[in-house]
Each structure stands twice: as C-alpha cells, then as structure tokens.
Amino acid sequence: MTRPAPIATFFAVVICVVALGATALSATRGPVAPASGYLSQSLGYELQLPGSWRRSTVLSTLVHNGNLKVGHEVFTIRSTADESGVLNDPGPGAAWSYVAVVEQWRDPAGWTAMAWATDPLLAGWARGQVVETATIDGRFAAKVTNGPRFSVAYYVQDRDRMFVVGYKVDAPDWKPLAATDAELRAIVASFHITP
Asked: Does 63 score more than 70 pLDDT?
C-alpha cells in the first residue's frame, strides 16, 4: 500500500478549504445579481447599481433646499420594508447610513469643483475633512473625504450645474447586512453625466 505524498495531501486540504470558503461566502452574501443601469432623465446622469441596490423613492424626495438645489436621488440596498422600519425606529439617520447619493445644484456663478467643495456655505465643513483633486467620469473633480454630509463626495462641474456624487457609511450599528463599502465605491465610480 502506498501513502499519498505530503504535497498531494496539502493540495487536497487547500482545495477543500477554498471550496468550503466559497460555500460559506455564497451562503452569507446570497446570489449576486448583475449590475443594472440607472438613468436619471430629470437630473441628467446615469450609473450602475450592483445586485439588489435600488433608488429609494422615500429618501429621494425628502429634502428641497432653497433655489440652488435642483434635486437629489438616494440609492440603498435596503428593501422597502426595511427602509420603512428604520425610518420609524431608530429614525431617519439609520435609513441614511450606507447609501449612495447624487445631487444636482444650479451653478450660475460658474464655480469650479474645488471652489464649491471648499466653500463652507455651499459644501459645509467638518473638522478633519480632506479635500483633494480627483477625476470622475473623465472630468476634473474635487474629492472630499470625511466631510460634513458624506463619508466621500465628489464635486463635478458641468456647464452651469454642479453634481455632488458620494456615499455615507455613518453608523456601523445601522449597516444593512448585505451592504459593502466596495459596492458604494463602485456606484460612485460608475457615475456618468448625460447630455
């Protein structure tokens, strides 16, 4: 009788561990649906939503600020029932955690993305925030990390309008189980201004 070589045993164990890990991952994440395109004709942009992410009709209609803001749309992985539940308990803050947001503002003065992002009256200001140059949709942008309203936000100028594209990952206690930072980053990175 021959004994299997130690290297063969090693590879057999590695294959089993990988197979078990893949099974456990699929059991915790569930099936991953392909990304779907979302086109906003009212605000003039498009992006890709991974898996079960969707536009929140509730959060996309809550706020209207002054005469500069054209509108905003919010994207969540929460089901409508889960979103409704967290709006009631613990409150609106939970529903706004782990969401991607696209805002469009009128920019009649023609401010640059960097000027808008660093103006405390337009963009706000938070202690410890970082503002740097970036590119999104092939355009010059200002990226704000740890700002007053978003964990990460990109300010992108397009003619007489300013887009703010970002995401919030506020409270770990309010994180939907299936949400990942990578999916939020992917949604923001897929942002494209349409004519």
From this structure: no
- What is the pTM for the complete model shown? 0.80
From first CA to last CA, the distance across the chain in angstroms is 74
CB atoms within 10 A of CB 42: 9
Facing residues of 57 across strands? none
Check whether 22 has a pLDDT greater than 50: no
pLDDT in tens, 32-55: 567 899 999 999 999 999 999 999
Can you say how many angstroms the Cα of residue 188 is from the centroid of all Cα atoms in its chain? 5
The DSSP code sequence of the chain is -PPPPHHHHHHHHHHHHHHHHHHHHHHHH-PPPPPEEEEETTTTEEEEE-TT-EEETTGGGS---TTTEEEEEEEESS-HHHHHHHHHTT-HHHHTSSEEEEEEEE-TT---HHHHHT-TTTT---TT-EEEEEEETTEEEEEEES-SS-SEEEEEEETTEEEEEEEE---GGG--TT--HHHHHHHHHT-EE--
Beta bridge partners of 154: 143, 165
Residue 42 one-letter amino acid:
S
CATH fold, domain 34-193, is Protein Transport Mog1p; Chain A (3.40.1000)
- pLDDT higher at 47 or 5: 47
What's the pLDDT score for residue 86? 85
